[in-house]
Each structure stands twice: as C-alpha cells, then as structure tokens.
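[Automated response] Your request has been received and processed.

Submitted sequence:
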Amino acid sequence: MPAMVVALIVAAMAAACGSNQATGSPTAPPASPTGSALVGPATPTPTPWPEDVARAIIRLGAMHGELGKAIGELGGAVQREDVAEIRSVADELADFLERNLENARTLEAKTFPELGRPLVAALTKLRDGAVRIRDGIDKGDASAIEAGFTTITEGMRDYAAVQPQVADLVPEAIRQTGGLVR
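Generated structure:
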C-alpha cells in the first residue's frame, strides 16, 4: 500500500479516538422549573423523548467503540498490506454503518434533527468510503481504493465533530429507557 494510504488510515484512527468533550450544545429540551419560592426550584427533568429516539441514541453511543475497533482493524490490515483482509474489513464496515445509519435517521426525523443531519452525513461518508474500498479492490482500481480512504478520513473528521453531542445524550437516553435496549 502506498504510504499516503497508511497516513490516511492513521488520521482516520486518530479521529475515531477523539475526545468526548462537551460541545456546549444543549443535550435535551429544557424543562420548566417547578417548586415554590420558599423551597426553591426542583431539579429540571428533560422532556421525555419518543422511545425509538432514546434507543437510537443508546445504540449510537455504543456504536462509537465498535467504529473505533473497525477503523483500527482496517488500519492494521493496511499496515500488513493484506488486501483480502482490507476488503473483508471494508465490507463489514459498510454493513455496520448501513445498520447504524437507521439510528441516525431516527434522530434526524424526530427529536434531534440538528444532530441527526450531520450525523447521517458523516456515517454516509464513512459507509461510502468503505464501499469504494471494497469495490475498488474487487475491480483492481487503485484510485477508487485511495478515494475510499480519503472519504473515510473526511467522514471520521465529520463524525468526530458530532459524536460528543451523541455521547452527551446517552445518560439521559438510558435514564428514559430504564437502561433497557432491545
């Protein structure tokens, strides 16, 4: 593999391991404080989210670690210059991302469209990059493979920008679902 492809994978892996620092975005719609002036306001509770939204947030939070592992596996296959393994990991990554796009689309369509839109865009780029790598290997097209790694790098950069907002929502989603996800 060319050194540039290895560098792209390393950059993608670094983005996957980005921090979970708060972004300053609100994590839930604010609730009105209640209570009397003598006792003080009660602790505000976020407005309940639709159950499918809360479950999608939990799944997206869990996806983060698995995505990091998959990117690491892809990077390892590139380092070993194992084309068959690169193809296999890219194929599995494309399927994994396709399944998780549905969760991001749930956020986009319902309670959190401002979070869902960039998340859908980032996961779509990642999936498309994995597909380009897989298909490029199948066709023996080095430029398609390189374009796939470039797309994954861009997708990881976009994902790293939005993932902390998802992470901020996970504790509330767990609270609202009682910690159960089917």
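Summary generated for your ticket: The chain has a mean pLDDT of 83. Residues 29 and 46 are 6 Å apart (CA to CA).
If you did not submit this request, please reply to this message.
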